Amino acid sequence: MTMEKGGISTLGEPMSKENGFDKFWAAWPRNPRKGAKSECLKKWIKFRCEHQADQILKHIEWMKTTDQWKQGNGAYIPAPLVYINQQRWDGAEIPDIEITVSVAFKDPALRKIEEDAKKAVKPNAEVQARIAELLKGRA
């Protein structure tokens, strides 16, 4: 039995280069309780979570948006081992996450540059003529 990437799982099935567990571990938010990776992998295999990986990942992404997981700088995010042991994704109602992109959004730095450009005083005719003359010399 090997648990390496690209090896054979305990179920005798070939493991893909990036399996569901790797995605699970990468998706889990950093916090003081994130640990025991090898134990989590053993439970992942024992509970055959690979077959539910998409549902688990969707649940984690949704939980990241909840007040419970955002509160206290992640103080209420459980250890990943607890999450797997309790199979917290099982039966969870996961609402569709709507992503709203504002077309009106403009980078604050760009907005500031544009505002400053509107306030800038245009050079007088003499200076403009001199600039045009200098630019002709470059061409």
Task: Describe the protein in words.
The chain has seven helices and no strands. It has a domain of about 30 residues. With about 140 residues, the chain is mostly helical. Helix 1 runs parallel beside helix 3.
List the SSEs and their pairings.
Layout: H1 20-27, H2 37-46, H3 53-63, H4 67-70, H5 80-85, H6 108-119, H7 125-138
Low-confidence stretches: 1-5
Number of extended strands: 0
How much helix, percentage-wise, in residues? Answer: 40-55%
Radius of gyration: 27 Å
- Report how far the terminal alpha carbons are from each other: 72 Å
Pairing-aware structural class of the strands and helices?
mainly alpha
Task: Summarize the helix and strand pattern as letters.
Answer: HHHHHHH
The biggest sheet, with number of strands, parallel, antiparallel or mixed sense and barrel status, is:
none
Question: What's the multimeric state?
Answer: single chain
* Rounded average pLDDT: 84
What form results from the Cα inertia axes?
elongated
**Number of helices, where a helix is a run of at least 4 consecutive DSSP H or I residues:** 7
Work out the strand percent.
under 5%
